[in-house]
Amino acid sequence: MHNKADEISPLTLAFVGDGVYDLLVREYLVRQANRPVGELNRIKVSMVNCKSQAQFASKLMPNLTEHEVAVYKRGRNAAPKSTAKNGTIAEYHSATGLECLFGYLHLNGEQQRINELFNLIVGLVFG
Questions:
Q1: Domains in the chain, ordered, with CATH?
Q2: Catalytic status, residue 6
């Protein structure tokens, strides 16, 4: 199955996926409870930092299709060789892979799949 998103660079997919994932986290937190913005931001940061995203990516692996794993690996392997601010380079690469997957799914209009994967992440965080 080939589609337009297959032709987009993995770092561009990660750029889109970063925004998609960030918005999912923000929406989820706001729907859960009416909290002060500072508290919302603190919880959000704990879910979007590269260390957390790398852990989520690892936990999602058994639930991904073969094609989704390939997309994730494209993003992970394409991560720029820069220094990660809040984690190891390996965590940064894994986080980029996760963002790449979310961007890929978003650009393919696979919102239901995004929601399924995000719900798995929420289960890991809030159990």
A1: 4-126 (1.10.1520.10)
A2: no
